[in-house]
UniProtKB/TrEMBL annotation, chain A:
Residues of the signal peptide: none
A GO molecular function held by the record: FAD binding
Protein name (Swiss-Prot/TrEMBL): Glycolate oxidase FAD binding subunit
EC number per UniProt: 1.1.99.14
Organism (species): Pseudomonas reinekei
NCBIfam families (UniProt xref): PRK11282.1
Organismal lineage: Bacteria, Pseudomonadati, Pseudomonadota, Gammaproteobacteria, Pseudomonadales
Top-level lineage group: Bacteria
Residue span(s) of domain FAD-binding PCMH-type: 1-175
Keywords noted in UniProt: FAD, Flavoprotein, Oxidoreductase
TrEMBL record, chain B:
Tagged with keyword Flavoprotein: yes
Domain FAD-binding PCMH-type: 52-230
Family annotation (NCBIfam families): glcD (TIGR00387), PRK11230.1 (NF008408)
Gene Ontology cellular-component terms listed: glycolate oxidase complex
Reported cofactor(s): FAD
Flavoprotein found in the keyword field: yes
Organism: Pseudomonas reinekei
One Pfam family matching this protein: FAD_binding_4
Classification via PROSITE patterns: FAD_PCMH
GO function term, MF aspect, one: glycolate dehydrogenase activity
Gene name per UniProt: glcD
Keywords: FAD, Flavoprotein, Oxidoreductase
UniProt-recorded name of the protein: Glycolate oxidase
């Protein structure tokens, strides 16, 4: 039903993991390699997930889709599109052939994130090949499930360091009936103030980005609420393609040569003064910085306001993710040690010690 | 099989010199309130699952986080098991004490520390009641979305520990979706901050792992939740059906129409009658099932959606569709549902509340099977159902004073949960495993999966002193549980993986 490329290759994936365990060979799990630029450079034998692909089950009225890890994200979106549904967290692909497994492992979300929730918020269940050489199932295809520890959501954003995600069940939602994007001319300070104010009101905002000159907003909901919000806010119409360009980092802002940093900040953080240029997304909670400033300096400024920084320029920093406090790192190590005692899954991708 | 802690199958617990521990606690923390006499301990011997009781060795009631830290350190040093307790409304025996353990009551930490309307967050102590957060946020037009029916009593710490849900989960998510940051103390009393004030944090998502971990991985000492702007408008439709199957199908039809209601609840005839008797909500007592469908949001959208849903319901064969005519009626419609448990409780000496989840399409078959089991065991079952997200609450009516009835209720409950697993669901949607469903965990997970759960526990609490015996069964217990089923001559689902 969902294309001829469907194939359950989990037996072979399990075999590869077991061989790696036997020979103590570290593995570099990879789909389309579209997000290889994120995280630390890791060595290891490549384990390609793309042979294990296809939609396993999808029943639109249950609002759940189960997909194998090697399935292209584009295929997932297409199938949902056809049923007028979507993955609300809008994960970026960064390549035409990006896979679902990579999307879960990196856990990146798009412009709708502050309103809809993140990738992990839509994970209902996973199948995972563990460092003990077993293919296991956690969570499931139901909306609510609190039996046992929540390993499924833990997998989201783990960068493949805890095991090989072979399958995932995701909550999906109907697409909004109406969507409309607008641009308002105002400076960043004012935009942040307005966003904080609007955030306390029931407005149907589902994306908010400030590019230095304009505040771009997406309104989504029923016909009535979108029209009313448009009447109230005014502004110029904006092509909806803007949001995909922002999400996939195709805006000219991202072209400049300087290193790219991602700043994740508490709600209502004022404009931060840092060398370089900034693009404000997620109504202020995520900011992109193009800057030659030292990592330690950027981190210090951001840490002071309760946020954290990720380096998006590959190889620039030996610790692209913000270093963890010592105690927290100890428990990360314990967890890695318990779930992947031989350290074969993407060793060092997240942190040198993991 | 008794669910009270059984050292033979649940693992030996260290013996404790109660007197020495009491002395040490008093020495180190003279201000700490400690209960140690039989009559003082009694009120703490159970949580909301009152059929099961154990008297704790000691109860401590700290008022300062430093005292919690002191208790944990001392207990760790003396190798004493610690069971955390919030408000004690849990329905799975998660806060059931241990004879050889200290019960750590977090209820006195009831301060709302900070509400930040611009950031839409509330930072609160773990003992704050769920509803108190929304009340404190109300002056800013904000509220905390997850609303368990126990919200006037249950604590946010308990909500985090159980990943509590409510009647608005399908649209607004569970506890895990509405948290930013949780501060915990490990079993050794070490402070960790999980999550942050930003929308994500570096490293692994330990916040997700800790949510729903039932006090097994750490003690929650502070919680930062997200707040949402109050919907401008909320309307409730009540639809009556002459069969539960039709009501079940109507739920799928609403979703298929592209509408996600704020709340979508179903009750069967026994539950309707009980609620009507108790609350006088105006429910149609002749109906085989009713659906309550709440639509909330911006006025104009709510109005349109009400029309759409009404059409869908009528097409699905509703015998009556009623829109709550004003706020008072809307509140009454919900009061009937939110009081369904105590209402059913009036029909019978005791009731036992189940919490299985299923894919919604399985509803008609599962309800039929429950009716058959009810007849087989000779116990009435009322059904209350978070229909939108497939979370069933069959309520088994029994009388604990009749010899054998509790055992029968328990056995019937176990059967229902195994049925949920069989159709691809889960043994618990929101109440947690606790002690209650410890045996059914053996049906939902195989030994390798359970082994991995134990590995996670070992990463945070290698000596197993935090809430031992809850949530994850030992392989030994599962082996016995499996054997018991075979002995009874009828392995319920031979196609399920067993060991
Ligand atoms: C009438 C009724 C209706 C209910 N309706 C719902 C409902 O709609 N949805 C729902 O999800 N639940 C419901 N419940 C169940 C219960 O209210 C929830 O599970 C609630 O989250 C428990 O909170 P509590 O503070 O009472 O926790 P307790 O019962 O005290 O403890 C529950 C668990 O949390 C742990 N715990 C408590 N505090 C901490 C802490 N600070 N740190 C670490 N661990 C801790 C305990 O060890 C235990 O395992 C209902 C209960 C009743 C009696």
């Amino acid at each position: 039903m969902h294309g001829s490329a469907e194939m359950d290759d989990s037996t072979s994936l399990l075999e590869q993991v077991n061989q790696a365990l036997e020979s103590a060979t570290p593995l570099r799990i990879q789909g389309a390699n579209s997000k290889a630029f994120l995280g630390r450079v890791t060595a290891g034998e490549i384990l390609d997930t793309r042979s294990h692909r296809g939609i396993v089950t999808y029943d639109p009225t249950e609002l759940v889709i189960t997909v194998r890890c090697g399935t292209p994200l584009a295929e997932l979106k297409q199938v949902l599109d056809a049923a007028q549904q979507m993955l609300p967290c809008e994960p970026p692909a960064f390549a035409d052939d990006a896979t679902v497994g990579g999307m879960i492992a990196c856990g990146l979300s798009g412009p709708r994130r502050p309103w809809s929730g993140s990738v992990r918020d839509f994970v209902l269940g996973t199948r995972v090949i563990t460092g003990l050489g077993k293919h296991l199932r956690f969570g499931g295809e139901v909306m609510k499930n609190v039996a046992g520890y929540d390993l499924s959501r833990l997998m989201a954003g783990s960068y493949g360091t805890l095991g090989l995600i072979t399958e995932v069940s995701l909550k999906v939602l109907p697409k909004p009936r109406q969507a409309l994007s607008i641009s308002l001319e105002m400076n960043a300070e004012r935009a942040l103030l307005r966003l904080a104010e609007w955030g306390q009101q029931p407005l149907p905002i589902s994306a908010a980005c400030h590019d230095g000159l304009h505040l771009h907003l997406r309104l989504e909901g029923g016909e009535g609420s979108v029209a009313a919000a448009h009447d109230r806010l005014g502004g110029e119409r904006l092509d909806a393609a803007y949001w995909a360009d922002l999400n996939e980092q195709r805006l000219s802002f991202f072209d400049e040569d300087q290193p790219l940093w991602r700043l994740s900040l508490p709600g209502n953080t004022p404009r931060l003064s840092l060398p370089g240029r900034q693009l404000i997304d997620w109504a202020g909670a995520q900011r992109w910085l193009k800057s030659d400033a030292e990592a330690s300096f950027i981190r210090q400024v951001v840490e002071e306001v309760g946020g954290h920084v990720t380096c998006y320029s590959h190889g620039l920093s030996d610790s692209p993710f913000q270093p963890l406090p010592e105690a927290l790192m100890r428990y990360h190590r314990n967890l890695k040690q318990q779930l992947d005692p031989q350290g074969i899954f993407n060793p060092g991708r997240l942190y040198a010690e993991l | 099989m008794n669910i009270l802690y059984d050292e033979r199958v649940d693992g030996a617990l260290p013996d404790v010199d109660k007197h020495a521990l009491l002395q040490a606690l008093r020495m180190q923390m003279p201000e700490l309130e400690i209960l140690h006499q039989q009559e003082e301990l009694k009120p703490y011997e159970c949580d909301g699952l009152s059929a099961y009781r154990t008297t704790p060795m000691l109860v401590v009631l700290p008022r300062e986080i430093a005292q919690v830290q002191g208790v944990l350190r001392l207990c760790h040093e003396h190798r004493v098991a610690v069971v955390a307790r919030g408000a004690g409304t849990g329905l799975s025996g998660g806060a059931l004490p241990l004879e050889k353990g200290v019960l750590l009551v977090m209820a006195r930490f009831n301060q709302i520390l900070h509400i930040d309307p611009a950031a839409r967050t509330a930072r609160v102590q773990p003992g704050v009641r769920n509803l108190a957060i929304s009340q404190a946020a109300a002056p800013f037009g904000l509220y905390y979305a997850p609303d368990p029916s126990s919200q006037i009593a249950c604590s946010i710490g308990g909500n985090v520990a159980e990943n509590a849900g409510g009647v608005h989960c399908l649209k607004y998510g569970l506890t895990v979706h509405n948290l930013l940051k949780v501060d915990i103390l490990t079993v050794e009393g070490e402070h960790l901050t999980l999550g942050s004030d930003a929308l994500d944090s570096p490293g692994l998502d330990l916040l997700a792992l800790f949510t729903g971990s039932e006090g097994m991985l750490g003690v929650i000492i502070e919680v930062t939740v997200k707040l949402l702007p109050k919907p401008q408008s909320a309307k409730v439709l009540l639809a009556a059906f002459d069969s539960v199957e039709k009501a079940g199908r109507a739920v799928g039809d609403i979703i298929a129409a592209g509408i996600i209601p704020g709340g979508l609840e179903m009750m069967d005839n026994l539950a309707i009658r009980a609620a009507e008797d108790f609350i006088h909500a105006g429910y149609p007592v002749e109906a085989e099932a009713i659906l309550l469908c709440e639509l909330d949001g911006v006025e104009a959208d709510v109005h349109d959606d009400c029309d759409r849903v009404r059409q869908v319901l009528e097409q699905a064969g509703a015998t009556e569709v009623r829109l709550a005519k004003d706020e008072a009626e809307r509140v009454r419609f919900w009061a009937g549902r939110k009081n369904a448990f105590p209402a059913v409780g009036r029909l019978s000496a005791d009731y036992y509340c189940m919490d299985g989840t299923i894919p919604r399409r399985e509803l008609p078959g599962v309800l039929k099977a429950i009716a058959d089991l009810s007849a087989e065991y000779g116990l009435r079952v009322a059904n209350v159902f978070h229909a939108g997200d497939g979370n069933m609450h069959p309520l088994i009516l029994f009388d604990a004073n009749q010899p054998g009835e509790l055992d029968r209720a328990e056995a019937l409950g176990g059967k229902i949960l195994e049925l949920c697993v069989k159709v691809g669901g889960s043994i618990t949607g929101e109440h947690g495993v606790g002690r209650e469903k410890i045996n059914q965990m053996c049906a939902q997970f195989n030994s390798d999966e359970l082994t991995l759960f134990h590995a996670i526990k070992a990463a945070f609490d290698p000596s197993g002193l935090l809430n031992p015996g809850k949530n994850i069964p030992t392989l030994h217990r599962c082996a016995e549980f499996g054997a018991m089923h075979v002995h009874a001559g009828q392995l319920p689902f031979p196609d399920l993986e067993r060991f």
